[in-house]
Amino acid sequence: MSPTAVFPETTGGLANAAMKHTIEKTAPSLKSMTNGTYSSLAELDAGKLTFTPNLNPKSVPELDSPEVWSQSVCSDHMITCAWTSTAGWHAPRLQPYGPLSLMPTASVLHYATECFEGMKVYRGFDGRLRLFRPDCNARRMLRSATRIALPAFIPEEFEKLVMALVSVDGEKWLPKSRPGSFLYIRPTMIGTGAALGVQRPKEALFYIILCCFPPFDDPRGTVTADPTHTTDAGIPAAPMRKPGLRLLASKDDMVRAWPGGFGYAKVGANYGPSLIAQGEARERGYDQILWLLGKHSEVTEAGASNFFVVWRTREGQLQLVTAPLGDKVILEGITRKSVLELARERLGEELECVERKFTMNDLVVAIEEGRLIEAFSSGTAFFISPISEIHYRAKDLDIPLETGVSGKYAALIKNWLQNIMYGKEDHPWGVVVEEESLEV
Questions:
Q1: How far apart are the C-alpha atoms of 306 and 290, rounded to whole Å?
Q2: What sign has the CA pseudo-torsion 29, 35, 36, 38?
Q3: Cβ count near 206 (within 10 Å)
Q4: How far apart are CA 188 and CA 208, in angstroms?
Q5: Rounded to 5 degrees, what are φ and ψ at 99?
Q6: Buried/exposed code over 246-275 (b: 16+ C-beta within 10 A; e: otherwise)
Q7: Which of 72, 74, 69 minimizes the C-alpha distance to 59?
Q8: What's the whole-model pTM score?
Q9: How far apart are CA 102 and CA 107, in angstroms?
Q10: Per residue in 20-74, pLDDT tens?
Q11: So what's the pLDDT on residue 252?
């Protein structure tokens, strides 16, 4: 594996040196990233996995039930693996789902030494279970972990552990009677070292859980009240659904990430401080914050998702545009990566894919001149979600939805991705997981 597979090209200086040093110490077999230095610490090894079945299994909630929408119901098992600075990675365990034990002085509780991933496992229409590009998630979590002073690991071992959990719980929690459904996968690493003091944690815990999750990409959109919509008797009608996501543009008093920071890493510190703005947006009837940056209001991300626009240039060129990764502000989303690669491969003759900085003024002018075709967000949770409205500087900017509920290109790319995820298209991105019948 090459160093650029983990480190952003622009990561340099102190941060780059520290991340490489972490790999040298905790995952020395990734020697192409290091100077060949080796450590005696044990590396993450899925081959040492032990299994303790859950003797008190839970029932699986119905699709679209309140339990699913609570996003708190997890499957019967979880994977845990401890790390210590003296021994390295311990043997991973596939065990009953349950609470974690932490000391009050644990590093994660004081210094935000935490990172995570967002993945899904899909029940295909052919009856098989699939992951979507798990190698990309593994590499991104390695990058996040080393950025936040947590131990490194071999990405292939990460993938094997994810597959082990999915293979055991998938049969029950994603039954073949529910094709087209999914579970959310949350791999997480936390610093557990029980000591105060601003320092690298000397202990860590890696764990993986499966969670029941609702679909957030429903094209029916959000429920909104329309005072002009009344019954025949002149009585205000029930709230209507407005298709697409409604975004509230951030103001100068808050940014999500900044150049030279850690927006490119999936660490909890990127999310917690943004929740107050997200909550305020929803209080005002919007779905997410459209995060802007700097005095020119550069467009970065929509909530925790990447943001795309399709427009025509003044010269008539049709473009798919999204913010670039170079200054470490933008998270390299797996869905983002896949959107760009599919668009370049399958739409290259009609649509130019461009990764560049653009501003809200660029977007406003494109709307005023009739050049904006559509906008959408991409991510694991919200998948491909069309945007119908952006509130910016006291104005509501209407975004076209060609089909009534989505833009043409968002719908097309979303369909291609779903076909891969659910087995309608045989593609190397869709990784089949063999299931194990669990007998307790």
A1: 10
A2: negative
A3: 25
A4: 6
A5: -65, 155
A6: bbbbbeeeebbbeeeebbbbbbbebeeebe
A7: 74
A8: 0.89
A9: 10
A10: 877 877 888 886 555 555 568 899 999 999 999 999 999 999 999 999 999 999 9
A11: 83
